Amino acid sequence: MSPLTVTVLVFPGVRLLDVTGPIEVFTSANEFGGRYRVQIVSEDGADVITSAGTRLSADRAADEVREPSDVLVIPGGPEWETLIKDDALLDVVRRLDATAGRTASVCTGALLLAAAGLLHGRRATTHWRFTRQLALRFPSVRVEPDAVFVRDGTMMTSAGVSAGIDLSLALVEEHYGAEVARAVAKDMVVFMQRPGGQSQFSKRSQIPYSRQELLRRILDAVAEDPGANHSLSAMARRAGVSVRHLARLFHEEVGTTPARYVEQVRVEAAQILLETGDDPMAVVARRTGFGSAESLRRAFVRHLGVTPGVFRSRFRTTGLVSDEPVTAGTSAS
């Protein structure tokens, strides 16, 4: 069986882990039954300096790639707003994609694919900080903001930085089976399938913009005191409008229901308390308006895909503040 060719495009300012994460997965798979040939390609074949200041050597120029790639990896970079205006780079992306069996982006690489016109009408994701930008700048893309990675036809897009490892493991499983992918995941000490979506890493503290002063006051009040009574009837009474009118304002201005917005704000408030304090779950639940630890647990699973206990263990500490070894139950890998 011939090796599968993985082509990784690099450019000045590329994020280092966007490149090395997938490469490590594919080359590690070769130790467990996979067969990959990885090549690094730059626009002109020259070395590039990553956003971390590290020099990466390219194996060849993009024009020298003659054979089709089984997988084309498009990484991202912090200066994505400049990159998506680089017509020469976008042309390279299009040409390499045209002969690739699968094209996969990491982090803001999705914005490069979108700018190249390759995500039109497709489902996609990117780093949680930029999903809104992806949706606003490229309205034909159906953005899935909570996904760690999304597969749509021959296109795959992944969330921020380390999610490129998740995506690459999925490709190894597709090519060589779950046993090989599992061996790679164990060898790299990462999850075979990461628990929860990327919303567990994001912050929802930004109050949605509203043209309605009345609604802005309501949104501010919820953010200032998430634990207060914010039932639809209570909010409508404080605003001096009908329940139906307030629900309509939320739908038109915020794009969600009052109850869902309040719950999102309360989940974020609970995230902060879990990250920074030692209060028992029942206390966190009362302080953030959930009432009970069970209601808090259900909301976390619904919004973040993990329980409050798992969230606290994952984000409170790296585990290096004591002499105790970090185990699978406390690692944030």
Task: Explain the layout of strands and helices.
Elements: E1 4-10, H1 16-29, E2 36-42, E3 48-49, E4 55-56, E5 60-61, E6 69-74, H2 80-83, H3 87-98, E7 100-105, H4 109-115, E8 123-124, H5 131-137, E9 142-143, E10 149-152, E11 155-158, H6 163-176, H7 178-188, H8 213-224, H9 232-239, H10 243-254, H11 258-276, H12 281-287, H13 293-304, H14 308-315
Parallel strand pairs: 1-2, 1-6, 2-5, 6-7, 7-11, 8-9
Antiparallel strand pairs: 3-4, 10-11
Can you walk through the features of this model?
There is one protein chain. The protein is of the alpha/beta class. It has two domains: 4-196, Class I glutamine amidotransferase (GATase) domain (Rossmann fold, 3-Layer(aba) Sandwich), CATH 3.40.50.880; 203-315, Arc Repressor Mutant, subunit A, CATH 1.10.10.60. It contains 14 helices and eleven strands. It has helices at 16-29, 80-83, 87-98, 109-115, 131-137, 163-176, 178-188, 213-224, 232-239, 243-254, 258-276, 281-287, 293-304, 308-315; strands at 4-10, 36-42, 48-49, 55-56, 60-61, 69-74, 100-105, 123-124, 142-143, 149-152, 155-158. Strands 5-2-1-6-7-11-10 form a seven-stranded mixed sheet, with helices on both faces. The protein has a two-stranded antiparallel sheet with strand order 3-4. Strand 1 (4-10), helix 1 and strand 2 form a beta-alpha-beta unit. Helix 6 runs antiparallel to helix 7 (178-188). The longest helix has 19 residues, at 258-276. The model is unreliable at 318-333 (pLDDT under 50).
